[in-house]
Structure formats: C-alpha cells, structure tokens
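Can anyone check this?
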Amino acid sequence: AERGCTFVTRLKTNTKTTLIAERPLSPEVVARGRVTRDRTVRLAGRLSYARANPITFDLREIDVVIDSGKTLRLVSNDLTSPAEAIADLYKTRWDIELFFRWVKQTLKIKRFLGTSENAVRIQLAVAMIAFLLLRQGAIESLNVRGAYFEVVADALGSVGVIIAAAVMWAT
C-alpha cells in the first residue's frame, strides 16, 4: 500500500505465516458468519529452499467461508479496510477471472489484437455478436455450425480490427 496499490489474493493451504496480531471481528461480522478470522501476519522468510520471499512487510490474513462451505485464506496488504470489504474485493476479482475464462472458452478469443480499452471493447463486442449469431443457428448440425462459426468469426474479427484501427486513428 506504499504506492497506493493494494492487492488481495488467496493463500495456499500449506503457506506458513507468523502471527503478529489478532484483529477483533465486530459482532455484526461474526453474526453474518462469512469472515471467521482476521489477523495481521508475516509470510515466512523463504518460500522454498532456494527462493527468498520478496514480501517483508505486514499483511492481513482473513479466513472467509464461501457459498460452498469451503474456507479460503485470503491475504492483502490493506491493513485499514474492514475484513468484509477485502472479502468482497476478492469475490469481485474472482468474478472477473471467471468472466475472462468464459470469454476465452466460449468466444474463442485467444489473445486481444489491440491494447487500448477501445480495441478490447470492440473485439469483445464483435465476438459476442458472433456468439449470439451462432446461438440462433444452434439447431443446425455440428459440422455446419462449426464451419459457419469459422467464417463468421473471421469476418467479424476482420471488421473489428478495422473498426478498432479507425477508432484509434481518430482519437
């Protein structure tokens, strides 16, 4: 958080931490039952036999129970926010990761052709249009649909690149 950036990530079950301080949970947080533990910790000095740990500052470890009943160990460098806010931030991060996994698997986007926000938005929009067009023709046979997808995806991808280039040129 030194430079204004915070992170939240999940710890592996076997990651060793050193307890610095237990942080009390408010009765409201305990009653909701999602956050079960909040503490200040440090990670071990070595992550493996040959690799030193680059994180030498205090971290926040939060145990969170997710909908399936599984407990996750989250770690963050945000020492001031409420524990539930950090848990919500991780959930939002996870939702974003699931969205991009869906994009890669369903829309068949292997990589983004442009790096600007507009180029990415246009490529996603074009891929979603192709996906919706294919959904309409889902009754057809698998071979016809596959060939159709290849033709539509290539055509829309080319159109998307042209539009992205025009937008980038104009701005």
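Reply from J.R.: I decoded it. The longest helix spans residues 142-170.
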